[in-house]
Amino acid sequence: MSEMYTKERARVLLEEWTKGESLRKHGLAVSICTESYGRLEAERLGMSGVEAESFVEAYACAGLLHDMDYERHPSLEEHPFVGVTFLRGQGWPEEVLHAILAHADYSGTPRETHLDKALFACDELAGFLTACSLVKPTKSVLDVEVKGVLKKMKDKAFARAVLREDITGGAALLGLSVEEHVENCLRAMQTHAAELGLGGSSTE
């Protein structure tokens, strides 16, 4: 990824396009989870140094930008197409744009790369983990446990807007069990708990 296309720039764009705090936090949570998979993949591929950082940056940016147009353009006809058109005009790398398109089932864009699969896998799960955090007395992701998340996934009344099949399907795309996928994303979000506003009532 070029020096022009950074997490910092992606964050600025997300905040320019999205005024709602919860959607901004969602973009950040998805970015954190997706970036963690980028790091695992870079390691698997034997990358290090600048090469690894550039590789991982694409994952982080795709997470931050995947819903950047949703607040302004929530319809199936416009999201994520309006955002991708804007980003393409700005010269963002095609790998990032492809992943953003592929995260939406109805876009017709197949999930081909590891980045495509990771973004799709993390989108719904990041939202679900946030919901699991907010029902804790402390409102902290640090108090969420994998077994509790798996139990809540079976409760159809809890966070009913979250598509469970996208979480399970995403795990399968990455060659992981649902438990492993939940653990990976939960650990990533716990590492950034304060940044996500999920550090608990005592640290807010």
Automatic annotation (TrEMBL):
Keywords, sorted A to Z: Hydrolase
Domain HD: 38-125
Domain of life: Bacteria
Residues in the signal sequence: none
GO molecular function, one term: hydrolase activity
Keyword DNA-binding among UniProt keywords: no
Protein name (database record): Putative hydrolase (HD superfamily)
Naturally occurring in which organism (per UniProt): Granulicella arctica
